[in-house]
Fold these 4 entries.
Entry 1:
Amino acid sequence: MSISRRGFLKGVGGGVAVASFASMFGLHDVSAADYNAQNHDAKDTPLTIVSLAATAERLAITSYYNTIKGNPFGLADEELLYLKYALSAELHHLEVVESFGGKALTDKFYVPAKFLSDFGVNTNTFMAAETAFTGAYLAATRRFAELGEPRIAATTAQHAATEAEHLALTREIGGYLPNPNTLPAPIFYNVSDAVPVLGPFLQGGTGFIGPVDYPGADAVRALLGKDMALKVPPFTQVF
């Protein structure tokens, strides 16, 4: 069984995808109005989940890599270190989901036009993306539990916890209160519900430019040097 980028995006119009993404820019402090009913009858397969996760992780890696490289916003050393640890964590996440059979749909991504020139756009993009990543991993946890895979469910819960940490850190760097919510936002019931959010990053759209190449693991490790987060084993490797 194989999954194509075209298959995931079928029926997801560029304008709708961009609108969905833009609406998330306002997701600074979550309220009841932010929760939308999802199609609870959808049944994501494990391959769908890990392939979407691998795609999202490569997108995150590409975004963090280019924000750190050259430091276009003149971030302080401590702030750069936060981002480097986040980047190294995303690389580890990618390794884990690839070990489960996940294959990224693409190595080329589109980004908001001012992603590397306007700090506000950069911050809001990361805030929206990390909110979506956290929600998607929570949805993956629900689905793997439903499928009777508790060890994999616990592993995706680990990923969700880390993405929530990244959200808090990027909020703090951007000048926002890092932890305004009591719980991560339950915005997706299925991982595939996140496809409209990923859409403009995969196919472009109004206000997006690219494509930008995924830098690859070797380039990421070269950029990080010794500045890497402690590599904690996933639940599946411990129990």
Entry 2:
Amino acid sequence: MTVAVDDNEGGNATTDHLGERMSRVARRLQEEHGDVEATLQAIAAAAVGTVPNAEDCGITYVIGRKKVEPRAWTSDLPKGVDSLQERLEQGPCLDAVWEEEVVRVDDVASDERWPEFAREASDLGVGSMMCFQLFVVGDQLGALNLYARTPGAFDDDSQDIALIFASHAAVALAGAEHESNLRAGLSNRDVIGQAKGILMERHRITADQAFGVLTRVSQEMNRKLVDIARELTDTGAVPRADRRRD
């Protein structure tokens, strides 16, 4: 299958095999090295360059069925549509993440599934939309939303290509979040180790005893252990608990 796409790197329209194009996109996303926000922005930009007739892209997180949070966008249009869907509590992105996984709107102005949304989104300049579920984690869901300013911009080929792109994007995003979590875990471990070292040297206690001090203060203050450790390393004092020791 070959498709005509915009090659952002070369600036000219080229005809590539979809598999080759997806490989280039995957390599580009991997270059973000665990930076979740940069990966989200890269996905949005790459989607516009990959899916035929897509003029804008937004990546949206939907939390608890009500909060619609734009996380990446190629213009203000996706942000405006996200705000509209949160206010009205209806729209194709919400349906995509909670019900259908893929929603295509060929003519926003005349679509009868979400009357209020259709009218106001059309006024914002949206002609066509496609929305794809990216992930589901607990009560947090992610969607990839594609926009065109003219009705009927997306056909079946556009949808098929966007589906493949969304699957690659979901893998790239999961990898970035995993790497980010690993880095955060290592950083937290270092901070806790430093805090334990301070307590051990100051009070002549063992590593286990020092960890016990941090754990007890964390429980008593209902704060994360890493936050207690970070404050100790920053200030030299256990938060509100200088007197505590094993």
Entry 3:
Amino acid sequence: MRTTSNPAFRNLPTTGGYANFNYGQGQPASPYGEAPAAPPQTSRPMTIDDVVTKTAITLGLAVITGTLTYLVGPTAVALALPAAIIGLVLSLVIIFKKKVSPGLVIAYSAVEGVFLGGISYVFAMWVGNPGIVMQAIAGTIGVFAAMLVVYKTGAIRVTPKLTKWIIGAAAGAAVLMLVNLIAGFFTSGGLGLRDGSALAIGFSLLCIGIAAFSFLLDFDAADQAIKSGVDAKFSWYIAFGLMTTLVWLYLEILRLLSYFQRD
């Protein structure tokens, strides 16, 4: 399986073991000349339906908690930061924990929805246009659907070279965002990557592009996992990974739209 820019996929196994094409080879036969019976299966290989179902559950829960948070009004602002911190902690636990934990993924989705609802309310009030939220959601769905079509049609093939470029670009963008944040503590506007200037607009467009191409790696990782016959429980990792990319894309689109809609 190829590597991906999404750390959520680091725990996906590279092989499955459900096909059992080689089972019985190199093993002693029974006294009657028959191959030994295959061991009982306690689980099953992952399918595309598993991925779609788990992704729908995580995104649906995030939409519900996000909507409820947004509707509480000004209180949503106070909920955004705690939810962001809790979501970060949960994501790190999910990424570095060796065992699949659907409960943690569901909890992360709920908390991330609260964060998105709160930050969406902040942006809506900042620009004085609540419609910016629906515009960002529509843009996110549009980019996701477009990249899915691109992947399925093979218009852009996921190659090792493309994978390296996307991972490098994502890492570079992350470093720039961190440096800009640190610089913001010492100078007004930091490096100017988030102040609404032409440079900030260009940086947001770059991040949107990187997030969009990251979907290709996510889709490919999921496709390879399905073909390898990994355990169905790992579909929770894929759902979590897709959601992290969607969250990043949504935030970047929301920020970009805010640059053009300030009062």
Entry 4:
Amino acid sequence: MATTEDVEETEDALFVLTAVLLTPARFPSVLGDDYPEACGVLGLEPYPQGYGLVLGQDGRGARWTVVVDDVSLVACALAAWDCGMEYDLSPDERTVVCALPGWPLHVAVAAPGVPAPHDPLPGPGMEDLQAPLAPPDSSQWGSEQRRLGADEIALQWAVWREQFEEPETSADASGPGGAAEPAEPSHEGVRKVLREAHAYVKTPPPLGRIRSSFASDGARILRADGPGWSMVARTDDIAFVLLDNMPGEVLPVGRGSRLPGLLKALDELAARPA
């Protein structure tokens, strides 16, 4: 791995463009289904306190991802930016863990006055650099795109929820007062996801594979991932499932009598933002 000295040797300071958190409760899910997997992609130890990822360009325009252990600093910057406020994100060199070539995510902006973003060019002292990080190909469908799709649903829950009615009801399954309950999911892939999610309750999965974030009216947005699948749910509503083998498809799961208990149990296991 490179250090910040390698970045500075290529052309002075780094122009910071954006940043993201890499913690058990909040990490770029494009990197993996859980926190240890995401850390492994970047060659980092999955320390519980997490990291901040600072994305920028050097003076020659090269893309760099600088990993810092000052999580609070990056969190403050993100909070300020989300509120439309300026914040000078300038990590102390003592907090820098390493600098990795490339960006793992798409960045829509570029530093002014420097060449267009590009991967660092080979040069003296850079022979041991790993292959540059790069965002996934948006024209393909796979695990990365499936997780990015789940990210979008979690971020825009209300928009997605409006597109789906409660899944079909079963005429022979009556609840209190004779009200029909949603039928058992007919899609085998969805049934498999629910079985694996139930298994998480008995045997907790790796850190970050279940995450919980704030939602309105006292509810939570719950995110769970597993091999080949992602599930996004609101604890007081339905769930959505995405599968690696169903490109671009979003499959709704009705509440019925079982989903509320599952979501409650998963939420109790979930990693939450500090």
